[in-house]
Write a structure and sequence with these properties.
By secondary structure, the chain is mainly beta. 5% of the residues lie in helices and 50% in strands. β7 and β8 form a beta hairpin. The model has no long low-confidence stretch (mean pLDDT 96).
């Protein structure tokens, strides 16, 4: 069973940046390296939506609202995935979840963008 733990959320002013991290355990680095990893978010009253995805080969995909502002990356040796978020705006406020292999979920980390 894979466990995912997110960190790095918090309160930031509009225009600011945050870097989210997701650490995986319960799987070897070799197994982790074959997983596609993704970040989702869920704002109050809204459905959970895909933010960014990175394949096991490093191919990245982004939701339109975050293109050019967010960057997803992975470190297979450390079994971590990151989401660098720049130029944040209030519409980015949500709980951000890490996902592995379209199956495993973390507990989420709150991101609040407000002045």
């Amino acid at each position: 069973q894979v466990q995912l733990v997110e960190s790095g959320g918090g309160l930031v002013q509009p225009g600011g940046s945050l870097r989210l991290s997701c650490a995986a355990s319960g799987a070897s680095a070799g197994i982790f390296s074959i997983y596609a990893m993704a970040w989702y978010r869920q704002a109050p009253g809204k459905e959970r939506e895909l933010v960014a995805r990175i394949s096991n080969g490093g191919t990245t995909n982004y939701a339109d609202p975050v293109k050019g502002r967010f960057t997803i990356s992975r470190d297979n040796a450390k079994k971590t995935v990151h989401l660098q978020m720049n130029s944040l705006n209030p519409e980015d406020t949500a709980v951000y979840y890490c996902n592995a292999h379209s199956r495993y979920w973390g507990q989420g980390t709150q991101v609040t963008v407000s002045s």
